[in-house]
Specification:
By secondary structure, the chain is an alpha/beta fold. It has a five-stranded mixed sheet with strand order 2-1-3-16-4. Helix 10 (about 215-230) runs parallel beside helix 12 (about 285-300). About 50% of the residues are buried.
Length: about 575
């Protein structure tokens, strides 16, 4: 699904452990907009005292429907259609009405924030500016206070390191992450971690071209040219030599998305995040500039189709399923459904991960491994219709019982105990690997509903990854680095640093396409110099001062977690 930093802000890489087969790869947006009077459930604050060592949700399993906003326009599934969500509702009494924006996520969320009224639950990327707006605006409730009042079991199932990491300056916790890996998780599960960022090529085309070396600018351009010449069309449609993530108003995750300062290209080039104990300005690194100019040259040679500048995620996934890209600089989990479709038609037409852009020394890439920030955070609105039921449902989803239910589903339906191990039934596993979209609608397990997914806990039930996904996973092994110290170092909100960071990200979002479309290296240099001056004028020095302070604090926190 773009774990990784992963919509598409880059999905953090913990997602890679489970999202190979998850709905992050689905393409059709769905869900519904909130409608007046859409929920008829009566608010009821349950005052029943519950045992702190016992799941609180068991105190009340009467029917209730929560409106749950997901800030991801691509999310395609509805609760209650599949066997797993039906099972969870039957068990807990909780039904979910997902609300998914039809267009621009930020516009939709900002409109709701401005109205002062939010749906019961909200899930969004941890890096989103809206998190701070909701907390500072008093629009969301502190989870720790709700836990004390209604469900002390929450404290039992929450990871102390993650609680500390996400606690706000007022000392309270407002959002809990999914796909998160604490330092202790690295100690316990690290050998099983895989990455998500890849350069992939169509296997049949790559082999027909003699498996060219794509690590150098010359080799990279030559391979794209050869692919276009040898395979000008795919099933009557023009070949797209290379695809990237979606271009947004803050950049592109393949090159750099400056809302998070996440960059696949910089990671492939092994450009350090810090030097001499301070955050490094990776954007002005000579290796990065050299490769940005390589992509500029690719465009000059007609090797970057105009589609890539305008296509949204659903359009990219549709073209990937048609095998129209020779190469993609893309998160592997984000085209899992397309990979499935290609594999079903012809196993040789799938995408495989290969060594891509490298620095002049040809050092291996440094790909983000799972991080403590994870991918998303889930918050509870001050307008929630039932505080007790909401915090108890979150506790359930975070607990081993809830993780097992959302990952494996209902026993006898999607899983069973086979050879002494709780695992997916053979026919369920086969459908998951053959047609993920059909699997989601029929069974709805394996993180179809990923809002509180725990990739580490699922390892006890996880089956070995099959092809055509295993090769993609295996390529990332040995290249991972824990990027947690650098998470949450980009300022947000309405303070001077936050406004500077937002402005700089917008400036980069406008500059990046111009740099790639420049007609010469000289024009590129002029445009890049202008960008550097514009970011300085926007407050780059102030932003970096903030990032360095946050980085230092993060290192201290992470060291404390290891004690």
């Amino acid at each position: 699904m773009t774990i990784l930093n992963n919509n598409k802000k880059l999905l953090p890489l913990t997602v890679a452990l489970a999202m190979t087969f998850t709905t992050a790869a689905c393409t059709s947006p769905s869900g519904s907009e909130p409608k007046e009077g859409q929920s008829t459930d009566k608010p009821k604050q349950d005052a029943v005292q519950v045992d702190p060592n016992s799941p609180g949700w068991k105190a009340d399993t009467s029917p209730i429907t929560f409106d749950w906003y997901l800030n991801f326009s691509w999310f395609p599934n509805k609760w209650g259609v599949d066997a797993t969500s039906q099972y969870v509702t039957k068990k807990t009494g909780v039904n979910i009405n997902f609300i998914v924006p039809a267009g621009n996520e930020n516009e939709k969320l900002n409109t709701m924030i401005a109205s002062g009224k939010l749906p019961d639950l909200i899930t969004l990327g941890w890096w989103e500016d809206a998190v701070k707006k909701m907390v500072e605006g008093g629009l969301v409730l502190p989870l720790d206070e709700l836990a004390k009042q209604y469900d002390p079991y929450f404290i039992k199932v929450a990871d102390p390191a993650k609680v500390s990491w996400f606690s706000q300056p007022d000392g309270h916790l407002y959002g809990y992450p999914n796909a998160s890996a604490s330092p202790k998780d690295y100690e316990k599960y690290g050998e099983n971690f895989v990455g998500n960022q890849t350069l992939v090529v169509r296997k049949d085309m790559y082999e027909a071209l003699g498996k060219p070396d794509l690590r150098t600018p010359e080799g990279f351009l030559d391979a794209l040219k050869a692919a276009k010449q040898k395979f000008p069309e795919v099933n009557g449609q023009p070949l797209i030599p290379i695809g990237f993530h979606e271009f947004t108003d803050t950049g592109n995750a393949s090159f750099s998305d400056n809302q998070q300062y996440s960059s696949m290209l910089q990671n492939f080039l092994a450009i350090p995040m810090e030097k001499d104990g301070k955050m490094y300005d990776r954007e002005t690194d000579p290796e990065y500039i050299r490769w940005l100019k390589t992509f500029r040259k690719a465009n000059e040679l007609g090797l970057i189709a105009k589609d890539v500048f305008i296509d949204k995620r659903s359009q990219m996934e549709e073209k990937a399923a048609q095998g129209r890209y020779f190469a993609m600089f893309y998160q592997r989990t984000d085209f899992a459904a397309a990979q499935n479709a290609l594999y079903a038609k012809d196993p040789n037409s799938v995408y495989i991960a290969v060594d891509g852009p490298a620095n002049a020394k040809l050092d291996p890439p440094t790909i983000p491994g799972p991080g403590i920030s994870g991918w998303t955070v889930t918050l509870i609105s001050k307008d929630v219709k039932d505080k007790a039921r909401a915090i108890r449902f979150l506790s359930y989803l975070m607990s081993e019982e809830g993780v097992k239910d959302l990952y494996l589903g209902e026993k006898g339906v999607s899983w069973d105990t086979i050879d002494g191990k709780d695992t997916f039934k053979p026919e369920v596993w086969e459908l998951m690997n053959k047609d993920r979209n059909a699997f989601d609608k029929k069974y709805g397990s394996s993180w179809t509903f990923w809002m509180l997914m725990d990739n580490n806990m699922q390892l006890q039930w996880q089956k070995p990854t099959p092809e055509p996904f295993k090769q993609l996973e295996d390529w990332t092994k040995g290249k991972l680095k824990n990027f947690s110290p650098y998470d949450q170092t980009v300022p947000s909100g309405t303070g001077a640093e936050g406004l500077a960071a937002s402005k700089i990200a917008q400036v980069w979002g406008k500059a990046l396409p111009k740099l790639l479309l420049a007609k010469s290296d000289a024009e590129f240099d002029q445009l890049f110099d202008k960008y550097v001056k514009d970011r300085e004028a926007a407050g780059f020095a102030k932003m970096m001062e903030y990032r360095n302070k946050a980085y230092g604090e993060n290192k201290k926190k992470l060291e404390q977690f290891m004690k």
